[in-house]
Amino acid sequence: MNVMRKSDHTDRPTQDRWLDVDEVRLVSDLRIMHSKVDELYQIVANLKRRHSGADIRKYADHPVLNEDIARVDEIYLWFVKLKEQHAKNEDIRA
């Protein structure tokens, strides 16, 4: 998997130039991620609205539910890390 590093693209603002292929791929991946996060949020909101936590646990495939929870925890921690990096960068600029 190729990782786009800051040194792989120009520091010029993106509104002053065309995006390169890796940047277009990144924007595309981010849009897909936003869509999937919203989709997951809507599914969970509907489950919570329609069913009790007890019923969800009763009817869940427990190994799969545990794996889902671990995956969501991993994603959550990644988002927290991004948020902290952004806050740190904002503090440096201030």
Name some characteristics of this structure:
94 residues; mainly alpha; 2 domains; 73% helix; elongated
Give me the count of strands: 0
Mean pLDDT: 90
**How much of the residues is beta strand, in percent?**
under 5%
* Radius of gyration from CA coordinates: 19 Å
Share of helix, binned: over 70%
Unreliable stretches: none
Order of helices and strands: HHH
| Domain unit count | 2
User: What's the main sheet like?
Assistant: none
Sum up the overall morphology in one term. elongated
Number of helices: 3
Helical/strand content category: mainly alpha
Distance between the termini: 35 Å
Q: What layout of secondary structure does this protein have?
A:
Layout: H1 21-50, H2 53-59, H3 62-93
Describe the fold and architecture.
- 73% of the residues lie in helices and 0% in strands.
- It is built from three helices and no strands.
- The chain has two domains: 20-59; 61-94.
- By secondary structure, it is mainly α.
Describe the structure in brief.
This protein is mainly alpha-helical. The protein has helices at 21-50, 53-59, 62-93.
